[in-house]
Amino acid sequence: MKIGRKVTAAMAGVLAAPLIVVALPSGTAFAHGYVNSPASRQAQCAARTISCGAIQYEPQSVEGPKGLQSCHANLSQFSELSNDNKGWRVHNTGRSVTFNWTFTARHRTRDYDYFVDGRKVATFSGNNQQPPANVQHTVNVGSPGRHKVLAVWNIGDTAMAFYSCIDINAS
Fold first, then answer.
1. Tens of pLDDT along 130-155?
2. Which segments constitute the Chitin-binding type-4 domain (predicted)?
3. Could you tell me the sign of the dihedral formed by the alpha carbons of 71, 73, 74, 77, in that order?
């Protein structure tokens, strides 16, 4: 009789497990990343190239809703990233620039968008796959001169994105 009860309990557990997994809320995605080369504003903060606040400790954390056009993802603690007069290092580049992303936690990727002075110039699909630890894209930034590039990593299964601004002088 005891064996029959154990078998019944085991079968009930096997049948209930899929229902429990579906019913439980999914966990928060801890995806984090930023452009490290050419050094984005947050990469410069992390390297102590320029004096910054809290962003120097977590350059990978500039996360906000998809669709923003902000270097700091509208996060008040990182607002200095949107200060164009802070003295950011400007990288001398050609018109074709390779941007290298570093991910401290990788998450499925919808796509990557690149904006030059507020104008979208490139999109690269992430195929809704988890990226490798490092990803690079080569972007034609258009005209020569000084530009602010906004690189955006759009996460595949959340409403969030990660933002990095890079200052360049294209020849």
1. 999 899 999 999 999 999 999 999 99
2. 32-168
3. negative
